[in-house]
Amino acid sequence: MKLYELANDYMALMQAIDNDEIPEDAIADTLEAIKGEIEVKADNIACLLKNLDADVAAIKAEEARLAARRKAKEKSHEKIRTYLSNMLQNVGVGEVETARNKITFRKSEAVDIDTTFIAWAMANRDDLLTYGAPTANKTEIKKALKGGAEIPGAQLVTKQNIQIN
Asked: At what angle do helices 3-18 and 24-90 cross, to 10 degrees?
C-alpha cells in the first residue's frame, strides 16, 4: 500500500470511530496496524531522502571541483591568448595564416571607467547609470515584525519543516 493510501485509510478509520461505526475492541488493533504500516513507509521514504541528500552533496562537490577546474582553464586560456596577441603586435605581425589556423586582429572600441566616474555621473549625468531592482530584506522585515511593527504586504508565517537525521 502507498503512504497516501494508508493516510486515507487512517483518516477514514478516525471518521468511522467518531461515528461509532467500529466496535471498541477492534479500534486499538486497527489503529496500531495502520500506524505501524505508516511508520514503515515513512522510514523508507526518509531513507530515500537521505540518499538523495547524499547524491545532491556529491553533485555539488563535483560541480565545485569542475568549476574550479574550468576557471583555471579559462585563466590559462586568457593568459596564453594575451601572450600571443602581445608577441604578434610587438613584432608587427598583423596576420598569420597556416593550414590549421588563421590569426588576425580587428579593431574594437570599449569604454574604460575609473573610480571617479560614478560620483561624477551621480552629480551630473544620472542617465549614464543603471540601477538594480530593489529586493525585500527578509531578515530586517522579520526583525521589524517581531518587534511589533505592522508592515503592509508582509507577515510572519509559522511553518512546520520536516527534519530527517
From this structure: 150
